[in-house]
Amino acid sequence: MKQQELLKEWQKEVEKYIPGGLSLDKHKTLLETLGSLVAEVLKDGKVVTLPFLGKLEVRHVEARKCRNPWTGTEIAVPAKKKCVLKQAKNLKMMLNQ
Asked: What mean pLDDT value characterizes the chain?
């Protein structure tokens, strides 16, 4: 689902609870604000809990060595941080039905 499709679906859902709803531009602003807020919290090393989805957290991946499959030369991959989603139990059950 692309951003524009997500915004339109979100707008439809909100109109069920808020008569008249919000404009698509306001939904886009809310989505962008949520994204930047989550990024800032993750950058500080904290966990973000998203209801019905799960928890977003940052994990540290150690430096390692691997091989280029084409040439066979050894490459050093530096340590990095990555964002992982630990899915909520209800999401996991819904996906596996």
From this structure: 93
Q: Which two tokens stand for residue 84?
A: 């992982």
Residues 6+ positions from 31 with CB-CB distance below 8 Å = 3, 6, 7, 10
Please state which architecture CATH assigns to domain 47-97: Irregular (4.10)
Domain-wise residue ranges, the chain: 1-46, 47-97
Cβ(54)–Cβ(87) below 8 Å: yes
Q: How far apart are CA 24 and CA 22, in angstroms?
A: 7
Report the DSSP beta bridge partners of residue 80: 61
pLDDT at site 93: 93
